[in-house]
Amino acid sequence: MHLSEIGEIAQKFWIDIPNHFPAAGLDEIIVMPNHIHGIVVIDKCGHGRNDCRDAACGVSTTTDNHITTLGRIINSYKSAVSNICHKNGFEFAWQSRYHDHIIRDIKSLNRIRKYIIDNPAKWADDRNY
């Protein structure tokens, strides 16, 4: 997948998420011409990993007194990408919502990783191709 300038911005800001949300880690990602797929791991210890065994894991992770949630992460991400695109004169808008799914086990994680990795091969079948 060859990224447009907007795609490059979207990818750059996605990769930067853990710098703004210490509790967020990233797994697979693919930026497509009209959408993005990515896995965000949120842990309560603030390490961006899902393997934490610390006793503090029972406490909600906070950043500047705000609980780290997927909604906060995605809203911040979408806002940052929109702002830089508009400042650079790109016509750009996100859909108003996003689709999420809680991954509960390794089998689901691996299935979703494969879906993300295989997504570019399906682009020619997309209705917006």
Structure description:
By secondary structure, the chain is of the alpha+beta class. It has one domain. It is built from 4 helices and 4 strands, in the order H-H-E-E-E-E-H-H. The chain has helices at residues 5-15, 17-20, 70-87, 106-118, and strands spanning 24-31, 36-42, 62-63, 66-67. A two-stranded antiparallel ribbon has the order 1-2. A two-stranded antiparallel ribbon has the order 3-4. Strand 3 and strand 4 (66-67) form a beta hairpin. Helix 1 (5-15) runs antiparallel to helix 3. The longest helix is centred in the middle third of the chain and has 18 residues, at 70-87. The protein starts with a helix and ends in an 11-residue tail after the last helix. Mean pLDDT is 84; it is low at 48-61.
Describe the structure in brief.
The chain is of the alpha+beta class and 129 residues long.
In the residues, how many domains can be counted? 1
Gap from first CA to last CA: 13 Å
**Cα-atom radius of gyration:** 16 Å
Instruction: Give me the oligomer status.
Output: single chain
Structural class: alpha+beta
| Overall mean pLDDT | 84
- The number of distinct helices, counting runs of at least 4 residues, comes to 4
Low-pLDDT runs of 5+ residues are: 48-61
Biggest sheet character: 2 strands, antiparallel
Could you tell me the strand content as a percent range?
A: 5-15%
**Fraction in helix:** 25-40%
If strands are numbered along the chain, what order do they take across the biggest sheet? 1-2
Principal-axis shape equals globular
Total number of beta strands: 4
The sequence of SSEs as H and E is: HHEEEEHH
